[in-house]
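Technical annex B. To support the medicinal chemistry partners, we prepared a structural model of the target in complex with pyridoxal-5'-phosphate, based solely on the information shown next.
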Amino acid sequence: MKALPDRRGYFGEFGGQYVPETLMAALDEFETAYRKLRRDRSFRRELDSILEDYVGRPTPVTEAVKFGALCGDFKLFLKREDLNHTGAHKINNAIGQALIAKRMRKQRIIAETGAGQHGVATATACALLGLECVVYMGEVDMARQELNVFRMRLLGAEVVPVSTGSRTLKDAINEALRDRVTNVLTTHYILGSVLGPHPYPMIVRDFQSVIGREALAQIRKRTRRLPDVAIACVGGGSNSIGLFYEMLPHKSIRLIGVEAGGRGPQLGEHAARFSGGALGVLHGTRSMVLQDEFGQIAETHSISAGLDYPSIGPEHAHLQKLGRVEYYDCSDELALEAFHRLSETEGIIPALESAHALGWLLRNGRSIKRNAVVVANLSGRGDKDVPQVMALQ
Ligand SMILES: *Cc1c(COP(=O)(O)O)cnc(C)c1O
């Protein structure tokens, strides 16, 4: 299989660089720096040592015997990204990009955040590496996620309220892109998922692929074989592509991505881009986008803020088209049920995002063959979601 993306940043017909001319030079500079640093011994050593000594990698793989038994008749292993410093996989990418920025001598970092998870990961990486950090966040999200706003400020970041549009994530991204164009020489924009213009989807994927690389080795050691199934939730798509990427060449492994089914199939009630979306361009990349009949970006809904985005990473759109990865969705209700069941049976409170993958297994696990080895990515811990779930009781 040829390595993707191609030179122009496409995965098949998806991806590319749909940005103003003023940003092209910055994207080129970022790609050139990355391609050079990827092979640079001292860069790799620095990254690896931070991942090991600070983030806490490798994260373990835990067999979930009791929760697995609720799902079906197979062996279920959880890849424990919830045990990373800051509680999710996002730190893998934030550290990687912050290190590149430092080598490019950009002292100022900007980021956007919806629920605040990517903002916290970025603020953490910047505190560690001594970089200035500005995080754009919609006013609505700031009110919903007070605790993360305070956390980012504790970490030394400036949080800038965005009062345009729906005052949520997509407006924060627009604002961050504007800042990036204005301060192109001094600033690096750390994007939080496999979204945006090339080279972001490639670079974020590469930094997250440590998840699947470790998981393959750990599962092989434990079971003396390859997993039969790998499953993860899909927001922008970074934790899932991180799990899948090294498994793509192993054709025997069934790969499953789970999107947010929300409250139901009506536009505006979910974030299921494959069943409800169409080809479109959003935030610099061509992919499947939730939009109305006039091409206006649709509102989305999910119980989990991290899955609540109208587009999906272009590589996922390609893998779906190829049929290499299967995509399904899981409703709010089913995710919530999985959230409770995993907590009770395993003593692990999962992020509501990760609970979507577990919910799919609860509902559909009986169709998986006996004694199969299944690895599910536990992309984050649920502590951040406890107040929200408590309010639902
Ligand atoms: C942000 C987030 C997600 C969704 O983002 P992806 O890029 O699709 O991984 C999933 N799980 C957790 C815990 C998150 O914080």
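Notes passed to the chemistry partners:
The first helix runs from residue 21 to 37.
The mean pLDDT is 97.
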